[in-house]
Amino acid sequence: MIYLDYQATTPVAPEVAEAMRPWAEERFANPHSPSRWGREAAAAIEVARGQVERAIGLSGGSLAFTGSATEALNWAIRGTLEKAPNERDRIVTVATEHAAVLDTAEWLAGQGVDLTLLPVGSDGLIDLADLERELDERVALVAVMLVNNEIGVVQPVAEVARKAHDVGALMLCDAVQGLGRIAIPEGPDLVAVSAHKIHGPKGVGALWMREGAEPAPLLHGGGQERGLRSGTMAPALCAGFGAAAKLASERRGVDRDHVERLWKAALEALGEGWLVNGSIEHRYRGNLNLRREGLDSARLIADLRDIAFSLGSACASGSGRPSHVLRALGLSDREARSSVRIGFGRYTSEQDLVEALSRIAAAAHAQEGVAA
Question: I want to staple 161 with a disulfide (CB 3.0 to 4.6 A). Which of 73, 136, 171, 249 is the partner?
């Protein structure tokens, strides 16, 4: 199997598995217990917290671990609106956001919150003038992701945050696909991240909160995490997230250069006839979302079962619906269904990538021959 689905999840780094092992085996104590073992487990969580906070790299805030980035985003959106003054009853977000943002915002709209979805251009980027026109003193929260999970486009998060703050609104950034890959700019009040997108374990995410911007709790119980998020913490998962974050920070330059080389090799291996979806300039280049006229992308995946790649977001796979992100770019249903997402990163070799993409290109040509 050649793995080219890095936006869905990443391979667990060996260093991460090693960091997790003691807390999953002999050092299994509840970190909220007053016993010596419990205190040691709690200390391990605090070390991990610092490692993730340093990887995020923002000042003036603190981080709470969650069960996933989806939980963190739900918490940030619902908790912010719950705490907002009555006159602030609006959310502004973008049509290409992850389902964890869009579905939560739409649920709140069903409860009476005023929801605005900003469009994007054919390059996948928002127009800051559109945002400015929508902002007023009723806006409680502006939610814009850093790196899009389907097309890799990088939004102008710092500028978005400044405009949100100008009207007294808070700004939420989904940085799941950006953490460890590009710098998270100063400005956001809330930042959601995930371990398994940076070579860490599944089942743990986090919400970074600027001081004073903490949302109301989403989960109630013992208040174990910062008095804001209830539930027994998993030291092994937190330690794994911390180790992955530390490694990502140390390797960011090396990983970036490796991905740049892979991007160039990928485009050369594919040859002509492919169009990249979204901006090439404003993009994380480990995400190659592209289309080919007349391609049956679902059949392509079925024909190449020993290569892992995708049609788009893993969260929407199997729905049969064309990608909402690609539709937002202005693509037709047919064009969206002729698109595939190739994701690569730290552990992808150039040889494997070129082999896989040469086979993908050959299978696409074969489809054209059958159609003819």
Answer: 171
pTM: 0.96
Q: In CATH terms, is domain 14-247 a member of 3.40.50.300?
A: no
Active site residue 238: no
Domain segments of the chain as ranges: 2-8+251-371, 14-247
Q: Give me the catalytic one of 183, 254, 298, 315.
A: 315
Identity of the amino acid at 37: W
Q: What is the pLDDT of residues 298-355, one digit of tens each?
A: 999 999 999 999 986 555 555 567 899 999 999 999 999 999 999 999 999 999 999 9
At the topology level of CATH, where does 2-8+251-371 sit? Aspartate Aminotransferase, domain 1 (3.90.1150)
Domains 2-8+251-371 and 14-247 fall in the same CATH topology: no
